[in-house]
Specification:
2 domains, Arc Repressor Mutant, subunit A, Jelly Rolls, alpha+beta, about 300 residues, five-stranded antiparallel β-sheet, 11 strands
């Protein structure tokens, strides 16, 4: 099967060199503001630091886009299209399908031409998140189009959150931004910018993590907090944690919550609302949903089986 995207140095028919050179010295901080007629929805006004999402819908036509201060991730939302791009000095072509990702590193001018109308989801992420995830500066490579279910899922989650109160919580944006950053470091960092891999956690680190989390399951445990306990960058930590525990940090923390919840539901008469708080769930309804998804029955039904 041929690759969906190819990069080359061939000239582009109809390319306007004067418009391209006019991008020199121009820099955007919020890209959607340069295309106001193309923005169907955006995260403007959300308390997210260094993270933005916006849905671009626009007609055919060449776009010459100045460099921006964030890394840009574009996911195709509409029907497949042929996409011709220029990222800095590199030219690439792609058969861009729904859910495929294009990655444009920060401070890179770009040119875009597609064969069908624009219907794309943009995620803009500050380089500071990648530095925080990896514990060092990270250089991303250009990606002219590839299948990436993880980035596609993040894009759908971010768009869906705009209709939900969760998007008004700064912590929501922080967790998503860190997840995207870890994924970008894992999949798109240039080899010389990729941090040296960490093997696994020591027994002491595993014990410290277990004691800390099990002792405070009512608190939030994002990857960055767990990584700090192990004195590792989030990127190194996520890899080492999976090698040691056999699962992701998020899944492991959720397992600890569910095991404590099961013990409390069956072994005590505490109200379910109190157990929800004690196990780190924002509401009894959220707790009941998570419990049923994990154990296959509601907390009330589980209590009756005891």
């Amino acid at each position: 099967m041929p690759p969906r995207a190819t990069a080359h140095d061939l000239p582009i028919d109809g390319f306007d060199a004067s418009r391209w050179h006019a991008l020199d010295g121009v820099r955007m901080e919020q890209p959607w503001q340069s295309l106001p007629d193309h923005v169907r929805r955006s995260s403007a006004g959300r308390p997210w630091q260094g993270l933005a999402v916006w849905h671009q819908v626009g007609p055919l036509g060449d776009l010459y886009v100045p460099p921006q201060g964030n890394h840009a991730i574009l996911l195709r939302n509409g029907p497949p299209t042929r996409l011709l791009q220029r990222h800095g000095n590199q030219v690439g072509q792609a058969h861009w399908q729904r859910g495929d990702a294009v990655v444009l590193p920060t401070d890179t001018p770009s040119f875009w031409r597609s064969t069908t109308a624009r219907d794309n989801i943009h995620i803009d992420l500050s380089p500071a998140w990648l530095q925080r995830a990896a514990g060092t500066d990270v250089v991303l490579g250009n990606c002219f189009g590839r299948s990436d279910p993880v980035l596609a899922a993040f894009a759908e989650l971010l768009l869906a959150s705009l209709d939900n109160g969760a998007s008004l919580n700064p912590a929501f944006g922080e967790h998503i931004a860190m997840g995207i950053a870890i994924h970008l470091v894992e999949r798109y960092a240039q080899p010389h910018g990729l941090p040296r891999a960490q093997g696994s956690l020591s027994m002491r680190q595993m014990r410290q993590l277990t004691e800390a989390v099990q002792g405070s399951l009512h608190e939030r445990w994002p990857v960055a907090r767990l990584a700090a306990l192990a004195a590792l960058s989030p990127f190194h930590f996520a890899r080492a944690f999976k090698a040691s525990f056999g699962t992701t940090p998020h899944a492991w923390v959720q397992l600890q919550r569910m095991e404590l919840a099961a013990r409390l539901v069956r072994g005590s008469r505490q109200p379910l609302e109190e157990i929800a708080v004690q196990t780190g769930h924002p509401s009894a309804a959220h707790f009941s949903h998570a419990f049923r998804r994990h154990w296959g029955m509601t907390p009330s039904a589980y209590r009756r089986t005891g």
